[in-house]
Amino acid sequence: MRKFGLVFKLLMIVLTLIILQACLSPDDLTVDETEPLTDLSPNEYLNTAFKDAFPVHYESFLRNMGNGRPPVSKFIPEYEPYLPILFAGFAFEQEYNTTRGHTYAVEDVISIARIGERSIGSCMTCKSSTVTPLLEEFGDDYWAANFRGEILPRMEELASIGASEELGEYGHVSIGCSDCHNPVTMELRITRPSLTNALARQGIDVTEATRNEMRTYVCAQCHVEYYFEPELKKVRFPWDLGNRPEDMYEYFQTIAIEEGFDYDYIHAVSGSPILKAQHPEYELWSYGSHGSAEVSCSDCHMPFERRDDRRKISSHYWISPLETIQQSCRTCHSDKTEKYIRERVGAIQERHLNAVHESQDLTVEAHYYVNRMITAGVPENKIIEAQNFVREAQWYADIIAAENSDGFHNPQGGMDTLRMASDAANNVLKLATEELLKLNVDLDELRTEISKVKETVLNEEDPFQKHIHATNEFFPKQN
Question: Whose CA is closest to 407, among 351, 358, 336?
Fold first, then answer.
């Protein structure tokens, strides 16, 4: 009996292994990623070049073209109507739109109003698969090269081949295959040095990353907060002190200033030195529940899907997991219904957006209170103190508003950061009120004028004209 039991256990182990082997797809098996998998050049950058070798993946990639609706302004009441005030004095005041997909990245960066004659090569960095050859060709001169005068003409030369009607004018050189894959071996790779450098400063060697880590790192090349170094204008990630918004703010207050970077722009309403936050999906994810559990970006945004031939591939249709709940969410949360997940996420995002609007509203008021401090003749040291509070408030409000998950990547972290934004804005209002009362300034009149300017911006129907109403005779321009 004992012998029979041992044989039975061995048979069960063998059977289990057979079943697992049958379930695994080629994507799941360990392969030698140094072996050539294609006949492509290691310098290939055209997305269309991968079509014949990977037709199923390419078909998935083409689905991103379905997001080709015209850009939608975030300045309208349904989104964030006071952004033209918060960005007053900076290029973002002119145009800031909702996202519409990686395959439209080049088209959008070329056409958006805030890319002007003084824009630089760094602005192309996360938009095109031609960036790798551009970096190779220009070297460190790439970063500060004139966007329209030098980078765009060369990018268009590189894009003159390989076009495809199904990918539109620039989809064949927008963010795509070679940005994340070695064209020869198809192993995941980092093509943007800014990420490699940022991780190295944190003591992380990206060459030792696991495949699961790489399934996040390829996204972290672009879905991050960044700024341009003052000398070479290189894209740099402010992670030296940590990935949380407060860590990055401390970095900007210390290391960045020591290295010559003070601010992105001087605010037209308050005269405050403002940091323009970008889109820190990676940073917020990294200390949220999914990041802490080592759930990669690809697990949710590129879920495995079965094709007609029963082969399993990672989806290359980059959309919200709410569109693929069964594959993206219920593989782990199988005890939850799709309805529950959708409602749960919706509740988180609704609370988050309400908090974003509250912190933005307070920060707008803070800017105008500082403007009145300036025009009323408050002592300069008090104005500077208030401006520093405004800088802090806008940083915390903006970095969460700019994060594209509407709070889901890190609900608690987002709320904590928005609380810090509101605290800093309230510090401005408190300080300004004390100083303005000393000068007998009519605070009721001030609040009335703030309401008027906000209403004027809100009611302006042309998104491109909203920013011109941010300042007026009562609130004169400060930069």
Answer: 351
Whether 266 contacts 478, CB under 8 Å: yes
Secondary structure of residue 227 in the 3-state scheme? strand
- DSSP letter, residue 118: T
The four Cα atoms 40, 208, 224, 138 give a dihedral, to 10 degrees, of -50
Q: Which pTM value belongs to this model?
A: 0.91
DSSP annotation string for 372-411 = HHHHHT--HHHHHHHHHHHHHHHHHHHHHHTSTTTTTT-H
CB 398 within 8 A of CB 276: yes
Residue type, 282: Y
Residue 384 CA to residue 372 CA, distance in Å, equals: 13
- Please list the alpha-helical segments (H only) found in 203-288: 211-220, 245-253, 255-258, 281-286
CA distances (Å), origin 404, targets 98, 247, 339? 9, 20, 22
Contact 80, 360 (CB under 8 A): yes
pLDDT digits over 56-77, tens only?
999 999 999 987 788 899 999 9
How confident is the model over 343-370, as pLDDT tens digits? 999 999 999 999 999 999 999 999 999 9
Q: What is the phi/psi pair of residue 424, to 5°?
A: -65, -40
Distance CA 373, CA 361 (A): 19
Sign for the CA dihedral angle at 30, 33, 35, 40 comes to: positive
Amino acid at 229: E
* CA–CA dist 396, 277 (Å, integer): 9
Distance CA 215, CA 212 (A): 5
CB atoms within 10 A of CB 420: 20
- Cα 248 from chain centre: 15
Q: Are 288 and 409 in contact (CB under 8 A)?
A: yes
Report the greatest alpha carbon distance in the chain.
98
